[in-house]
């Protein structure tokens, strides 16, 4: 296969129901615990990789401006160059159609799009599993954005894999944005701190696989209540382990949103939070409208994004 040198990929962010937190191998960026996520629709990242003969260094442009995180990006591109034998440096341009302050991990959709575009631009004939493993080396949650619907990233493996179609449990996803200033501790650094300092990290390592296994069973059974209970259990355990190392993502308004979710009638919605202050609420589709309106009325909530379950990465 000759290398087209240039390719564009479109990907979506994902939200974990059972969380990845902590690394088995920091250099390889492999997760210490299994995780299961849902890929979103609505929000997307579009990334073009152009390998350019004669270019002196890799360059990353995000939303028209010089982008951050070039070391991890270069390392993904280096892996593609090593596998393909191509030596050119690349211009990487990326756009998100969603605000970064929405707290939806742009590194997940970002590294998934980077990996898929780079693999194709370099003419590598890799399947999605191998491309997912490449995305994981940049950001582990990105491995999951390669696929649509419900997606699993096992702790033992190197790549994510599709776990179930969206119709096993149709969900609406409501993202309650609680601040414009979402400059929290990044997940990579916060995980490292948790691993080094948290007295609860070992407890997290013990409970996460158990919650994950139960969550998979509940999901396949289409058991909304059980999926909700386990997602919230994973959320609190992850945040408790981080908090014991001094990393606090929950803010007053996050708690107010969570209290509002808890006030809803049983079986209507459940919540999760990631490495930021916004609250992600999963609702049964028929209740999405009324739940979104209630969340919008919580003092401090700036807006509520309404999303659904989406598809995996694609080339354009
Ligand atoms: C809380 O994938 O951003 O969102 O591998 O260091 O890039 P790195 O971390 P990242 O961590 C995501 C953590 C999380 C939970 C999850 O998505 O599973």
Which residues sit in consecutive blocks of at least 5 with pLDDT less than 50?
none
Order of helices and strands: EEEEEEEEHEHHEEEHHHHEEHEE
Quote the average pLDDT: 96
Question: How much of the sequence is in beta strands?
Answer: 15-25%
Query: What is the quaternary state of this protein?
Result: single chain
Number of strands: 16
Discrete helix count: 8
- Helix/strand-derived category reads alpha+beta
What is Rg? 19 Å
Largest sheet: 8 strands, antiparallel
What spatial form do the alpha-carbon principal axes imply?
globular
Distance between the termini: 18 Å
Approximately how much helix is present in the residues?
A: 25-40%
Write out the distinct hetero groups bound to the structure: ligand DP6
Written description of the protein model:
The model has no long low-confidence stretch (mean pLDDT 96). Strands 2, 5, 10, 11, 12, 13, 14 and 15 form an eight-stranded antiparallel β-sheet that branches. The protein contains eight helices and 16 strands. By secondary structure, it is of the alpha+beta class. The protein is globular and about 60 Å long. The longest helix is centred in the middle third of the chain and has 20 residues, at 201-220. The protein has helices at 70-84, 106-121, 128-138, 187-197, 201-220, 224-243, 252-263, 288-296, and strands spanning 6-11, 14-18, 23-25, 30-31, 35-41, 45-52, 59-62, 65-66, 89-96, 150-153, 161-164, 172-177, 269-272, 279-283, 303-309, 314-315. The structure holds ligand DP6. Ligand DP6 is lined by residues 16, 19-21, 29, 35, 105, 107, 139-141, 187-188, 191, 274-275.
């Amino acid at each position: 296969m000759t290398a087209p040198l240039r390719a564009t990929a479109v990907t979506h962010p994902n939200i974990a129901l059972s969380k990845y937190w902590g690394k088995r191998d920091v250099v390889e960026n492999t997760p210490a615990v299994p995780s299961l996520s849902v890929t979103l629709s609505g929000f997307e990242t579009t990334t073009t990789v152009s390998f350019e003969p004669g270019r002196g260094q890799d360059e990353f442009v995000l939303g028209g401006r010089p982008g951050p995180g070039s070391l991890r990006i270069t390392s993904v591109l280096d892996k593609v160059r090593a596998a393909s034998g191509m030596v050119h440096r690349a211009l990487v341009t990326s756009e998100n159609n969603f605000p970064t302050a929405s707290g939806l991990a742009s590194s997940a959709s970002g590294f998934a799009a980077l990996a898929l575009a780079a693999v194709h631009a370099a003419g590598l004939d890799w399947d999605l599993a191998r491309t997912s493993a490449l995305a994981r080396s940049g950001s582990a949650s990105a491995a999951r954005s390669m696929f649509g619907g419900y997606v699993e990233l096992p702790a033992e493996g190197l790549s994510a894999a599709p776990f179930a179609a969206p119709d096993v449990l149709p969900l609406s996803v409501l993202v309650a944005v609680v601040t414009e200033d979402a400059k929290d501790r990044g997940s990579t650094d916060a995980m490292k701190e948790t691993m080094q300092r948290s007295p609860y990290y070992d407890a997290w390592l013990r409970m996460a696989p158990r919650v994950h296994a139960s969550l998979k069973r509940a999901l396949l059974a289409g058991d909304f209540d059980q999926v909700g209970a386990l997602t919230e259990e994973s959320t609190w355990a992850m945040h408790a382990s981080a908090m014991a190392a001094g990393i606090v993502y929950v803010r007053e308004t996050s708690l107010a949103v969570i209290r509002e979710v808890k006030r809803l009638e049983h079986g209507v919605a459940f919540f999760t939070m990631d490495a930021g202050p916004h609250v992600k609420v999963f609702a049964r589709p028929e209740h999405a409208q009324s739940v979104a309106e209630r969340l919008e009325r919580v003092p401090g909530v700036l807006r509520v994004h309404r999303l659904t379950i989406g598809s995996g990465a694609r080339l354009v």
